[in-house]
Amino acid sequence: MNNNHFVDGVAGINSSFSDSGLFGIRVSGSGNYSSDILKVATSTLKSLANGVSESELSAAKAIAKNNIGLALERSSSRLEESVKNYRTFGKIVTDDYFGAIDSISASQVSSAIAGIINTNPTFVAQGNSANNLDSYDAIRNTLN
Q1: Are 110 and 51 in contact (CB under 8 A)?
Q2: Residue % of the chain over a pLDDT of 70
Q3: Measured distance CA(98)–CA(87) in Å, rounded
C-alpha cells in the first residue's frame, strides 16, 4: 500500500481481550484521495486473504521481531512485560515470542485475514471527505 503516492501511512491495529479482540489496519492520506485509499486498503486485504507470499511473510516476521526487540530494550520495559506475562499466563513467556513468530505460516495469515473480512468488519473514516466514500454495504461487497 505504501507504493501509492496518496498513502501517507499504514499501521496495524491489534487489541486483545479475554473473550474477543480487535484487529485492523489504519491507512492515512489526503482526503482528496479518500476513495483511492479505500480501494487500495480493501484490495490489499482481499489479496492477502487469497495468499501471502513467503517473502512477504519473512519480511513481516523480521519487522515483528525487530519491534519486539526494540520494545524490550530497556530493563524497565522487560520488567513490565514480565509482570504482564505473569499476570496473564501465570508464567513469563517473553522468551517464547520469537519462536511463536517463527511458527506462523503463510496459510495461517491468509486464513486469519479471510476470517476477518468474511465477517462483518467495522470501517471507520475520519475527515472532511469521509461522506464521499461508498456505503458500508458497497465496501463490504468489495471484500466478498
Answers
A1: yes
A2: 99
A3: 20
Task: For residue 1, tell me if it sits in a domain.
Answer: no
Does 84 reside within a domain? yes
| 52 Cα distance to chain centroid | 14
Going 88 to 93 to 98 to 102, the CA torsion angle's sign is: negative
Answer whether 0.85 is exceeded by the pTM.
Answer: no
Q: What's the structural domain count of the chain?
A: 1
Q: 132 near 35, Cβ under 8 Å?
A: yes
CA 95 to chain centre: 23
Tell me the residue range of the domain where 127 lies: 7-143
Are 33 and 6 a contacting pair, CB within 8 Å?
Answer: yes
136's grid cell: 458500508
Which of the four pLDDT bands, split at 50, 70 and 90, describes residue 86?
very high
CATH of the domain at 94: 3.30.830.10
